[in-house]
Amino acid sequence: MTVFHAATAPGEQPPADSVAPRDSSAEAPTSVARLNATIRDFVARWNTVWVEGEITSWNVRAGNVFGRLKDTRSDAQISIRIWSSVRARIPADLGVGDHVVAAVKSDYFVKSGDFSFAVSAMKHVGLGDQLERLEKLRAQLRQEGLFDSVRKKPLPFLPHVIGLITGERSDAEKDVHRNAELRWPQVRFRTEYAAVQGDRCVPETLAALAKLDADPDVDVIIIARGGGDPQTLLGFSDERLVRAVAAASTPIVSAIGHENDHPLLDDVADLRASTPTDAAKRVVPDVGEQRAIVAQLRARATTRLTQRVAHDIAQLEQLRSRPVLRSPDPIIDDRAQELLLLSARGRDAVTRGLDAGHRSTAELRASLRALSPAATLARGYAIAHLEGGVILRDAADAPAGTSLTITVNRGSIAARSEGEIAEGDGEG
C-alpha cells in the first residue's frame, strides 16, 4: 500500500497518530485505521465552503438525506449528507433537478473510508439569477440568428412518421398519441424516451434527437413535456440542446407545455405548441376536416362543370337557332343566282371585248395594207433594185449597163439600164 503524508500548514505539526512515509515500510506497514485517521484529521481542517450545483440524487433514509450535487457546467459531482437536524432548517421542497447553493464541509468516515460533504445549509438558487442568465443566452442566440423565422422549416402537411421525444409512460406521450390518432387514425410514431428533468435530461434528449433526425422515415419531431416550474424546465434551455435543435434537418415542434417563462427550446424550434395536445393538432391534419374539404371542393367542381356545360349547350342552341343555320338553302340559292348573274355579265364583257378587238384589228390591217408597198405595186407601179437589193431612187445611180431587178405586183424581172433619159424623151 502506498501511503501519502497528510499535508499540514507551514510550521504546523501533524497529529501524533498520523502516519508519515517514514512511519511505514513494506516490512512494517501502517494499519488501515491509522491511514483513515490520518485522512480524517487532514480533511477535518478544511473550512466550510459554499458550492453551487444541481441535485442529481436525493434519497431519504431515517430522516437523513443522502444525495449528490453536480456541477451545472461539467460532469464533476460530489456526495452530500444532510442530517435530520439540518434537514429541518432547509426548504422542504428540495429534490432532484433543483439548482441550489449549499454550505458544505468535508467529512471522512474512518470506519468505511467514505468521503462526502456534510451540508449545514442549502437553498434554491435565486430564480432571478437563473432567468437573467437565460435572458443573456437568449439575446446571444437571437443575435446569431437562431430564432429568425426565415430559418424555420415548414412542417409537412401529412407526416408519414412522427418522431416523439418524451418521458417514458408520461401523460405527454399519451396526449400526443391519443389526439393524433383521433385526427388521423393511420398516423405512425417512433418514440425515443428521455428524462425530462434532472442531469439526464439534456444528454438523453440530445441522443434521442440525433437518432430521430438521422432516420430518413421521420418527417417531423415533437419534443413533449407536460409543463412544470421554471426550475424543472432548465434542461430545455440548455445551450447544447438549443444549438442541436437549430442544426437539425428535420422540422422540430416544441411542446413543453409551459406558457410563462418559456424555455429557449420554444424560440429555436420550427413550431412552438402550447401543450402536447396542441402539438398533435398542429402536426396532424384532421381526417374529418380534410374529407369535408374534399367533398366541398368536389361539389364546387361539379357545380362549375355543370354550369360550364349548360352555358356551352345554350350558346350552341342559340347559334343553331339563327336563320342562316336553321335553314341554309335560301342563302345558298341567293348566292347561286348572284353567281349566275355575275358569270353572264362576265361572259358578255369578254364577248364585247373580243368583238372590239376584232374590229380594231381589221382597221389596223386595212391601214397597214393601204400603206404597204404591195398595194402600190398592185396599182401598176414597179420598184427597181440595184445589185445588193438597194432600191433605185435616182436615175443617175444607174448609168448605162447597170444590171437592175424590177419588182412588179406579181414577181420580178431582170433588166439592164440604157442610161438616164432626158426629160421629154419618154413622153408619148
Report what the structure shows.
- It catalyses: Exonucleolytic cleavage in either 5'- to 3'- or 3'- to 5'-direction to yield nucleoside 5'-phosphates.
- Bidirectionally degrades single-stranded DNA into large acid-insoluble oligonucleotides, which are then degraded further into small acid-soluble oligonucleotides.
- The protein is of the alpha/beta class.
- It is elongated.
- It has helices at 32-44, 84-87, 127-143, 171-183, 201-213, 239-247, 264-268, 276-283, 287-320, 323-326, 329-371, 373-378, and strands spanning 49-61, 64-70, 77-82, 99-108, 115-124, 161-166, 188-193, 220-224, 252-255, 271-272, 383-385, 403-407, 412-416.
- The chain has twelve helices and 13 strands.
- Among the domains are: 46-125, Nucleic acid-binding proteins (OB fold (Dihydrolipoamide Acetyltransferase, E2P)); 130-285, Rossmann fold; 376-416, no CATH class.
- The chain is 39% helix and 19% strand.
- The termini are far apart.
